[in-house]
Amino acid sequence: MHNKPDLYRTRRFTLILSLILISYSIAGVTLNVENGISPIGIPLNISNPNLLGIGLAIACIYGIFQYGYFYIMMSLSPRKARKRVYEGLLPDGTNYSKTDKKYIEEVQKALDEYFPRVYNQKEILFNVVQDPEYSDKGVPESTSHFLAKDFKISCITKVLYYIEDLYFYAPIWLPIVAITMFICTLVN
Question: What is the SS3 assignment for 131?
Fold first, then answer.
């Protein structure tokens, strides 16, 4: 089992580094290190201050891979959960329950969690049918397989979940923008 780093620390690390690299690239920051610098009272001489941007870019790439691996590939992102719900599955990938009422409660819980809505907005409507793949087979009486279909989702909810996706994937796209800007300043 992998030791997953803290989501918020990983996001913060990657986003802050990206913003520093963007600021570094746009502002054309240079270090004036004639006398050196002394963090915590120890004098340090920096012989290659031009490499600071490359170090920031490498740290951004590390942040992209760490966030991408642990929170996009290995976890259930809001986008993956919504896709599963659209396919009639629950976010955990299942579509069975003891009763259709229990299944409807689970689907409604997933809709409340993964489909953002504004105050006083109508609930998302859907129909539940028995899964035809399992209805012909002898399904044990203890469970039944259902599919949620025909979702009626308002346009504002769709806009909100695209904004949520943009926010969730910011530690991927913002460092890419920052690295691209840094490379453009190197070329010019």
Answer: coil
The residue among 24, 5, 4 whose CA lies nearest residue 13 is 5
- Between 3 and 183, name the one with better pLDDT: 183
Contact assessment for residue 84 and residue 91, using Cβ atoms and an 8 Å cutoff: yes
Give residue 106's pLDDT: 84
Q: Is the pTM of this model over 0.85?
A: no
Backbone angles phi, psi at 144, to 5 degrees: -135, 155
Average pLDDT taken over every residue of the chain: 81
Which is higher by pLDDT, 4 or 137?
4
Q: Got the DSSP string for 152-175?
A: E--HHHHHHHHHHHHHHTHHHHHH
Closest CA to 75 of 86, 67, 65: 67
**Helix locations, the chain, DSSP H:** 7-27, 52-67, 78-86, 100-114, 132-135, 155-168, 170-187
